[in-house]
Amino acid sequence: MQKSLQKKLAAIMFTDIVGYTTMMGQDEGKTLQLLRKSRAIHIEQIEKYNGRVIKEMGDGILAQFNSPLEATFCARDIQLEARFMLCKIRIGIDFGEITIDNHDVFGNGVNIASRLQSIADPGGVFISSKVHDAIEKDCDILFENLGEISLKNVSSPVNTYSIADPEFPRTSRQRKKELTGSDIIESIAVLPFHSLSAEPEQQFFVDGIHDALITELAQINSLRVISRTSTLRYRNTTAAMLDIARELGVDALLEATVLRDQDQIRIQVQLIKTIRTEEHLWAKSYDRELRNVFAMYNELVKDIIREIDAKLTRYESDQIDQFYEVIPEAYETYLMGVHHWEQLSKESLDSALEYFSESIQLDPNFAPAYTALAGVWLGRTQMGYVNQSNALPHVYKNMYKSISLEGENAESYFWKGSLHVWIDWEWDKGYKAFKRTIEINPNNTKGRAYFAHLLAITNRLEEAVSEAEISIQLDPFNELIRSLYGMILNYARKYRNAEAILLDILKDKKNHPVAYSTLRSVYFNLGEYEKSYEMFKRSYLEKGETRSAEALEKGYKEGGYRKALSSVAEFKIDNPDGNYHTPWQIATLYTRAGIRDKAMTFLKKAYEIRDPNMPYLGVDPIFDALKDEPEFRTLLDKMNLTQFIKT
């Protein structure tokens, strides 16, 4: 008697061990031990998530789940459990109708899951759009859309996603192009320029030209341009071009040499395509007088666009055609100011202020110097080097002067948006300014990163995470941009994701203040107070605040975590070290210590001086304990933040 076939909706998961056959040939006994360990992990997690092992196929497993969410959680946890094994696992998942015949399953979903597994990154999980669409609103896993991929024996391309949590491998831009079959140059990195000058002190000038060219290219919407911070790591590198391109996730690299002879400049450029192989597309030399440097940038950008066949909007085309002559001494002085500005110390910001002021004296119509002056004044107040009330008139004056001279420019709108959000607390105006920043320069990393923070402040957290991820793609090795992403993940309550990002930053940059301050909040929010205490202590010691660290340690010995933080708060109020400690800092310490009345006292003081951190009042999880305080709700009302609080 023929058995009837059963049809049902199910999620199918395929897994296998990468390089299993080769491993068996090298060490059969050791490989069998790994296989047994892998199977144990699989079975434990499949049972945990109510799945069913259909069959084992050598090193692989085929499993069925009633829920695509449970299948995805299972795949994630298998990879997290297996990441310390001496092998890597690939996993693919699809969701749809299957046919069950006895103890086996058939159907298009089975085939798709199998094919997705075969192309997944080692240690990664690839899922179809059917799975992604079904679970997107119900889980906190981060995903990346890889695009439409043609799979063997599957009639139509499958829109594919990968798990993109920090612990998982990211599919490189190069590999995405290989999977989707695209051969178009859509992204580029401009490597640090080599100086042919015998004068080492001219490096600031070469760096300035490098930065300026990136800025010009970045205004093209159809081209993803890696920010300068991430390309600088390849100065004097011996790494192969294809390896650099893969690390940065770009389709092409631009490298150049610069020779300056007084007011004459020569740039020799070559463009290298890196989609599959290293292919030298084009090379050219440009000779100009320094006063015509912007015309040279425009010509170079036009040649690159022509070579890669990038698409331009009418606005972009008009912008590229615009340039002006500079006064050489003013431009050189401006570049020296940029060199000092990037160092962010009090002394370097003071020096940058002098150089930018001198540049304006030499050329009162040079708009970039006014934009830079606005940025330096705002930076000086954000770092606590000058009083905010003294700095803001300079910020506004220079910002609007820049706009009046140059018209719309991304940098001016970026500072404008920053002022609207963190100083004026005008959310709609800030939104419009940041949107205009990105419209003018879609590759403006800072613009996207801080726009993500505005989205978080206004409780649009999914959009904030997405925008922050774009900023990471544009500047993948920038510790500040990554730290700002960690903050977003913390506000979105994706604590483990934030922890992984921040620990990775501190591994390479042991004294990064934003990473430290965010990580200690993450541990507080997780209830892991001992780890939070250690992060407080390490951050104080790294900043040279030894007496704060001593107060923290003394309080911890007397009464644990909460006593430690209240002790530091009292120390900062007494201020025996003579440093300036903001009311916001003290308020957050009392908040974590659970002393609500004192926390509210200092939050009100922070409101009175318009502390730039106050916009986070409604979204930062550390304030959850204060949200039922009438005075806290009053502060939210005064700042027009209540409208964004979800009840």
UniProtKB/TrEMBL annotation:
One Pfam family in the UniProt entry: Guanylate_cyc
One of the GO BP terms on file: cAMP biosynthetic process
Domain Guanylate cyclase: 11-117
Gene Ontology molecular function: adenylate cyclase activity
Positions in coiled-coil regions: none
CDD domains assigned: CHD (cd07302)
Gene3D superfamilies on file: Nucleotide cyclase, Tetratricopeptide repeat domain, TolB, N-terminal domain
InterPro entries per the UniProt record, alphabetical: A/G_cyclase, Adenylyl/Guanylyl_Cyclase_3/4, Nucleotide_cyclase, TPR-like_helical_dom_sf
SUPFAM superfamilies reported for this sequence: Nucleotide cyclase (SSF55073), TPR-like (SSF48452)
The protein's name: Guanylate cyclase domain-containing protein
